[in-house]
């Protein structure tokens, strides 16, 4: 299935049904009184986060979504039935914003989250609502209220703890397949990965994290070269970036340091906050470098790249060094999770065991 991470839709909740003007007509009851019922509520439009979905492709081909209107009120004190609601299933991580203003309205961050994105209109009042001591035979009624109508932009940002960043053919897909349950397409040509892949890395019992592989970047991506940098949005929610470097390029004229600097520059152009995220260097394909040359090549790269952060030397193909990498990642991710779970002081007036 083609990966689609952006779509525009129009939604319309159902209008409320109209109220009814009616009077009781029964034999031997001359003054039966009003018995016109209210109209039914229009159907709502809900959005639900479905963990089984990973694209917004369905909304590319089905842009208009309308809930049913409520039934009109009827005589004999009968109220109209409410219109049927509709539920739109969206991937976890979907951001729903106003298509005109760009204002973010809702976010589906957890599997099973349900949000009302358009409310149905209330039903109108029938004439039985207007009966009073001085108005025994009211002929008033009100129409149903209109349901909400919106034009929305849907944007998917995958939820992952760790994101892989690097040039095409740096070995990102091989790495994610080596350490997780993801099975992306792997080939010996650039741009094998055309859409983000998510994988769960299990470190131990009840110890895991989610890793995301995005299509490779090249210099000039900000101007549309290659696949552009539209997929970088999927790294904005990660806690850690792994910059994967190909230490054994096929072409001897290719300089890994120049490629690495180009990636960092594209990151800076796209988003300053993303550029400032914690980033580790992962020097890959060292199995293709003669053993006696590895230490010198790694030292030369780190020196010319002027890197002072964490460096990991691995071979995703043979899985050499991968175990140490994933344990270090888990330790970092776990530390950040615990920092976010720090206890918060609660006003005793709102605590569950506070005295009345």
What's the structural blueprint in terms of helices and strands?
Layout: E1 6-12, E2 45-50, H1 57-61, E3 64-66, E4 86-91, E5 94-98, E6 104-108, E7 114-118, E8 149-156, E9 162-166, H2 172-179, E10 197-204, E11 207-213, E12 240-246, H3 256-270, H4 272-275, E13 279-284, H5 291-305, E14 311-313, H6 322-340
Parallel strand pairs: 1-3, 2-4, 9-11, 9-12, 12-13, 13-14
Antiparallel strand pairs: 1-8, 2-7, 5-6, 5-8, 10-11
- What is the makeup of the main sheet? 6 strands, mixed
Structural class: alpha/beta
Q: How many structural units, i.e. domains?
A: 2
CATH architectural name of the largest domain: 3-Layer(aba) Sandwich
* Percent helix: 10-25%
The coarse overall form would be rod-shaped
- Give the SSE order as H and E letters: EEHEEEEEEEHEEEHHEHEH
Task: Give a structural overview.
By secondary structure, the chain is α/β, with parallel strands linked by helices. The protein is 19% helix and 23% strand. It is built from six helices and 14 strands. The strands form three sheets. It has a six-stranded mixed beta sheet with strand order 10-11-9-12-13-14, sandwiched between helices. A five-stranded mixed beta sheet has the order 3-1-8-5-6. Strands 4-2-7 form a three-stranded mixed beta sheet, with no helix packed on it. The longest helix has 19 residues, at 322-340. It is rod-shaped, with a radius of gyration of 30 Å.
């Amino acid at each position: 299935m083609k990966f689609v991470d952006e779509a525009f839709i129009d939604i319309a909740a159902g209008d409320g049904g109209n109220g009814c003007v009616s009077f009781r007509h029964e034999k031997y009851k001359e003054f039966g009184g009003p018995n016109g019922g209210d109209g039914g509520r229009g159907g709502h439009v809900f959005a639900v986060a479905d963990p089984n979905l990973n694209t917004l492709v369905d909304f590319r081909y089905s842009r208009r979504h309308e809930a049913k209107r409520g039934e009109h009120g009827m005589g004999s004190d009968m109220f109209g039935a409410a219109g049927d609601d509709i539920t739109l299933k969206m991937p976890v991580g979907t951001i729903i914003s106003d298509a005109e203003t760009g204002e973010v309205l809702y976010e589906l961050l957890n599997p099973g989250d349900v949000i009302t994105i358009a409310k149905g209109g209330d039903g109108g009042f029938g004439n039985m609502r207007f009966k009073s001591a001085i108005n025994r035979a009211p002929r008033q009624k009100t129409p149903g209220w209109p349901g909400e109508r919106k034009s929305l932009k849907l944007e998917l940002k995958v939820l992952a703890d760790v994101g892989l960043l690097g040039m095409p053919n740096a070995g990102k897909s091989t790495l994610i397949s080596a350490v997780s349950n993801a099975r992306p397409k792997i080939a010996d040509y650039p741009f094998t990965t055309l859409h983000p892949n998510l994988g769960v890395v299990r470190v131990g019992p009840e110890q895991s994290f989610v890793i995301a592989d995005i299509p490779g970047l090249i210099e000039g991506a900000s101007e549309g070269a290659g696949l552009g940098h539209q997929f970088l949005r999927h790294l904005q929610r990660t806690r850690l970036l792994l910059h994967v470097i190909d230490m054994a390029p096929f072409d001897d004229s290719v300089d890994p340091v120049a490629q690495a600097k180009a990636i960092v520059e594209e990151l800076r152009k796209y988003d300053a906050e993303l550029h400032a995220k914690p980033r580790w260097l992962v020097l890959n394909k060292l199995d293709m470098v003669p053993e006696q040359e590895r230490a010198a090549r790694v030292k030369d790269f780190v020196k010319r790249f002027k890197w002072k952060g964490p460096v990991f030397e691995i071979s995703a193909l043979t899985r050499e060094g991968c175990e140490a990498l994933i344990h270090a990642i888990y330790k970092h991710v776990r530390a950040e999770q615990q920092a976010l779970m720090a206890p918060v002081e609660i006003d005793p007036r709102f605590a569950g065991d506070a005295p009345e």
